[in-house]
Amino acid sequence: MTGVTRTSVSLLRAASTTSAAASSSRVAVAVARRSVAPLARSMMTASTSALRASALTRASPVLSMQRRTMFIQTESTPNEDSLKFLPGRQVMESGTHEFLDTRASMASPLAKKLFNIPGIVGVFYGPDFVTVSKDAEHQWSTLKPEIYSSIMEFFTAGHPLFTDPESSHGSSDTVILETDSEVVAMIKELLDTRVRPAIQEDGGDLEYRGFGEDTDGIVKVKLKGSCRGCDSSTVTLKSGIERMLKHYIPEVNGVEQVLDPEEEIALDEFAKLEQKLEKDRKKERDMGFSL
C-alpha cells in the first residue's frame, strides 16, 4: 500500500510539474502575444505608412516630371535688351499681344508676374514664344532664372493667359476687309505672309497702321516686341520691308514707323537730354577741357 501511495504521489507530482510547465508555457505564449501584438500593429502601421508614402512618391514624380520635362529654350534677338523664350507650346491662339507697363499687364497673369521682376520693361506674346525686354541697368544672367521659373510655373499650372478670353486672339490688323482696295489688300497680304514670319523669328512683330493711297504712298507700320527700340529697326524698315513692298507694289513710295504718344514723348525727352549733354561737352571744350 505504501508503495502504491508513493507511486501515486510521484505521478501526481509529475503531473503537477507538467501542468505547471504547460501553464507557464501558456502564460509565456500569452505574454509573447501581448508583446508581439503591439509590435505587429506598429509594423503594420509603419508598412501602411510606407505604402502610402510610396504611393505619394509615385504620384509626386509624375507632377515633378511634368514640370521638369518642360524645356524652355531661349533665342537671342537683334535687340540685346530683348530675349525670346520658347516654352514648347502654343502661346497665342492667333495674332500677337504686347505689354509695355505694369498697368497694361493686369490683363494677363503671366505678364503681371513678369513685370514684378525688377528690370523688366516689356512683355510680348507671339504664336509660340514670349519675348521679354529689360532695361539697360540689369543683366540677363540675373534675370533669366526668375523668368524661367515664372514661365514654367505658369504653363505647367495650366492658367489662362488672359483674364478676358477674347484677348487671346490678338490684333487683326492685316485681315483683308471688303472695303480694302486691291493695293491695300496686297500690302496686307505681303506683310502677313512675307514680313511677319521673318520678324517673329527675331522675337518681334509689326502692326499695319495705314497706307496713303491717295496722298504720299507711304505705308505706316508699328514695330513691336524685340523690334521696338532696336538699333537695327531702321534697317529692317528700309532695307527689308520697304524694299520688298516697293518691288511688288509700284504704288508704294516708302515705309514709316508709327510711334505711340508715350514713345514720342520719350524720344523728345531723350533728344532734349542729348542736346543738353552736347552743350555741356561744347562748353567744356571751349574751356580747354578735352573729352
From TrEMBL:
It comes from the Eukaryota. SUPFAM superfamilies: Fe-S cluster assembly (FSCA) domain-like (SSF117916), Hypothetical protein SAV1430 (SSF110836). Signal peptide: none annotated. GO terms for cellular component: mitochondrion. Belongs to the NifU family. Residues 72-158 form the Scaffold protein Nfu/NifU N-terminal domain. Pfam families: Nfu_N, NifU. This is Scaffold protein Nfu/NifU N-terminal domain-containing protein. GO terms for biological process: iron-sulfur cluster assembly. GO terms for molecular function: iron ion binding; iron-sulfur cluster binding.
